[in-house]
Amino acid sequence: MSVSRRGVVKGGAAGALSIALAGSLDTIFQTSAGAEAGAAFGYGPLVPDPKGVLDLPKGFSYKALSAEGDTIGAGVLVPGRHDGMATFAGSRRDTLRLVRNHEQTASGVKPVAPAPLVYDPAAYGGTTTLEVDRNGDLVRQEISLAGTSTNCAGGRTPWGTWLTCEETEGFTGQTKSHGWVFEVDPTGRRTRPEPITGMGRFAHEAVAVDPHTHVAYLTEDASKPFGLFYRFTPRSHRSEYHAYMAGGRLDAMYVPDLPDLSVVQEPGATFRVTWVKVPDPSAAATSTRKQFDKITRSQKLEGAWWGHGKAYFVASYSEQAAGAAADHAGQVWKYDPRKETIELELVFKPGGRFDGPDNITVSPYGGGVILAEDGDGEQYLVGTTRKGEPFAFARNAFNDSEMCGVTFSPDGRTLFASRQSPGVTFAITGPWHRVRA
């Protein structure tokens, strides 16, 4: 199987992800083409969109908002390569805010923002903040961070801000170093384009934050050698914006006698871990993942989220042809900070109808999840019922670009999701309670 990129967990509901995910996702990746339409469960078969944009089940509809190239203001356009996204409180009771990443590096529609919001003028990544009313209509939008690079995933903080992650260690023409995490205030009042250096400089993917201790767990998607799973213990435990700027300690996870997570193929396998201090988190001379003689690695470490007092993290796939110790089509691991153990929750095998796990969010309906594909061929939003039965909830009818940024509104009435290229964000509504098993 060839999977193109990521398995990233993002969105406001993701923090509540249930352990039932194990059964549901395993079913998704083992299911045959006969289940693809979801006629037996879910919301029924997909209805072709006359506009050729997004196929949805009967009764559901979408609104396309904030498309790449739309005009925001004089000389300001919506950037492209939409990616990770989360919801926050709006300026009024009947609105909400979306903070959305743009995974551009050194080309595309460049974010244009006031100088106090620009980090590196040579970089094309950043974030856009959208304000949306309860009907899914766009009220306003603005560039909320500019001059960052390859903003892929991220995570929410307990104090209601967005951590946006750079999935890069630099590029030709940069004027400042890259590979950092930045914090974005959804209100736009406090955002400063300053990297959180304590969280390290590497090809970041996602962040999961323990809401009680504020310890953050970070994934790295890198190769030659493969990436690591990190723990950032902040010096300050204040629950406020920029608390992480006070610094802290960055460690990398080490499982003795397990140099490559891909060799573990049995769900339930549990290993005791230790944490090794990263000698130079700034990677001034050597990449953080190269600063160890013995460490535990994995190809395609991607999504991370916090739930049930544990940190979950995803390896999207592993291929021996790329230097991995074993092949798999995805792993979900669970780290228990009290026991200091990791446990393999899931291992996905090739051959299913759906492929390329990317963004995941919990559905408030039916006890399942909504998963965005970033695989080969057609790209779906895939749902599961409480019993783990998979169904196709939506299909990108426009092209083969990945779906991303899935997240429900706080009231559960609207599912927001994006097509990455050409970038456009959708607000999807319909009879959510109709899910059937």
Automatic annotation (TrEMBL):
Q: Secretion signal: which residues? A: none
Entry-linked Pfam families:
PhoX
Spell out the PANTHER family in the cross-references.
Answer: MEMBRANE PROTEIN, SLR8030 PROTEIN
This protein is called Secreted PhoX family phosphatase
